[in-house]
Amino acid sequence: MFLSHFIGDVHQPLHVGFVGDEGGNTIIVRWYRRKTNLHHVWDTMIIDSALKTFYSLDLSVMIQAIQKNITEAWSHRLPPWEYCDDGRTICPNLYASESISLACKFAYRNATPGSTLKDEYFLSRLPVVEKRLGQAGVRLAAALNSIFASQIKIARA
């Protein structure tokens, strides 16, 4: 359980955001009309809005759309998602570096304290969120495959 939580969290850009604003937790914004903080926008609100706007509130439909992107639109990117440059299966420093870059480029941009985040923010950030969910899923699957492949080898020995 820890591994899935860790891999998921490190792919959320604000989980490696700035210490000074506690990863966006102290940046109070409005998500459309709702008062919240930037971290919550990235943890929950973008996904909830996507479910409502594009997926008829059906999480399985959203998951299928991300799976389709993994097998089609993003398929050429899978090898570097599955393995680290040095051949390891899990590379948390890389995932964190990707996330902080995305936090600066997307999460924090145009999200100043007191701002109202609407369609322009939502529609331009949703592809980032969906891609990070896909990357986290691919990387978790690769890690689990590696762990269980090792277990099978040990059992056979």
Output mean pLDDT: 94
According to DSSP, the number of beta strands is: 3
Instruction: Supply the number of structural domains.
Output: 1
Name the helicity range.
55-70%
* CA radius of gyration: 17 Å
What is the overall silhouette?
globular
Sheet/helix structural class: mainly alpha
Q: Give the second-level CATH assignment, the architecture.
A: Orthogonal Bundle
What's the arrangement of strands in the largest beta sheet?
Answer: 2-1-3
The first-level CATH class name: Mainly Alpha
Low-confidence stretches: none
Encode the helix/strand succession as letters: HEEHHHHEH
The fourth-level CATH homologous superfamily is P1 Nuclease
Question: How big a fraction of the residues is strand?
Answer: 5-15%
Major sheet size, sense and barrel closure: 3 strands, mixed
| Number of helices, counting only DSSP H or I runs of 4 residues or more | 6
As for the CATH topology, it is P1 Nuclease
CA(first)-CA(last) distance: 27 Å
Structure description:
With 157 residues, this protein is mostly helical. It has a single domain (2-140), classed as Orthogonal Bundle (P1 Nuclease). Helices cover 62% and strands 6% of the residues. It has a three-stranded mixed beta sheet with strand order 2-1-3. Strand 1 and strand 2 (34-37) form a beta hairpin. The model has no long low-confidence stretch (mean pLDDT 94).
Notable characteristics:
157 residues; mainly alpha; P1 Nuclease; globular
Fold blueprint:
Blueprint: H1 2-10, E1 28-31, E2 34-37, H2 38-54, H3 59-71, H4 78-82, H5 92-107, E3 116-117, H6 119-156
Parallel strand pairs: 1-3
Antiparallel strand pairs: 1-2
Helix pairs in contact: 1-6, 2-6, 3-6
